[in-house]
Design a protein that fits this description.
Elements (H helix, E strand, L loop, with lengths): L1 H16 L7 E3 L6 E4 L4 E16 L4 E19 L2 E18 L2 E18 L1 E4 L2 E21 L2 E21 L4 E18 L5 E18 L1
Antiparallel strand pairs: 1-2, 3-4, 3-11, 4-5, 5-6, 6-8, 7-8, 8-9, 9-10, 10-11
């Protein structure tokens, strides 16, 4: 009798936990696929973005190429049906190559960039959602620039950041999903050498295609 009561208790706990599990994806009655994501669902995704910038001035014989790679782990929690709050925790790597008069100079930038995001999921049918979102946060990076004789000079970059997310999510199942879209990121802050009171203001605007994989539970 005690075993039966214990089994009933376990089943009851499992039943109560279902709204925050994969069953939080509701299958539509009039359209094919999922069309609603219920409160309590957690989305955990790994996403990355590649940005390329190229500038050239043939009159001055100068050019520059910047490669920016951003990869992030993004947990999101649905506080309401189809509305989530989450974090974007990103690692950033940037490589800049400048050419002037046939002489190339390469600098690198690495660091962290994080956002608090809010997204609303609009069903497009057939398991596809459009998830426009906005977020705010900050960044802290280190830039290394060649200083001659095999030496490098380092500066610190830090400040605030904002992100616009124009992405789509396709739920291949109640647990697994694919993500892609366009993201715009604005960074604004200061750059200066360690131990120096001299800093300059910086502002960068990046836009690129974002893609990744997600797991819902």
């Amino acid at each position: 009798m005690k075993k039966i009561r214990m089994l009933a208790l376990v089943l009851s706990i499992l039943a109560l936990s279902l709204p925050a599990s994969a069953s939080g994806l509701v299958r539509a009655g009039s359209t094919k696929g999922f069309d609603n994501i219920q409160q309590g669902v957690v989305d955990l995704s790994l996403e990355n973005m590649l940005i390329l910038r190229y500038l050239s001035n043939s009159d001055a014989d100068t050019s520059s190429l910047s490669t920016v790679y951003i990869v992030g782990l993004n947990p999101h929690y649905f506080i309401m049906n189809n509305f989530s709050l989450g974090l974007n925790l990103n690692f950033l790597y940037q490589k800049d190559t400048a050419s002037s008069g046939g002489v190339d100079t390469t600098s690198t930038e690495t660091g962290f960039m994080g956002f608090l995001m809010a997204n609303y999921y609009l069903s497009l049918g057939n398991n596809l959602f459009f998830k426009p979102g906005v977020g705010g946060g900050g960044f802290y990076n280190t830039r290394s620039v060649p200083a001659g004789a095999g030496l490098t000079a380092e500066t610190k970059l830090y400040g605030g950041a904002a992100q616009l997310d124009l992405g789509f999510v396709f739920y291949a199942s109640a647990n697994f999903n694919l993500r892609a879209g366009v993201n715009a990121i604005i960074r604004f802050g200061k750059e200066g050498a360690d131990g120096s009171d001299v800093e300059q203001s910086i502002t960068t605007v990046d836009m690129g295609v974002n893609a990744g994989l997600g797991y819902s539970f």
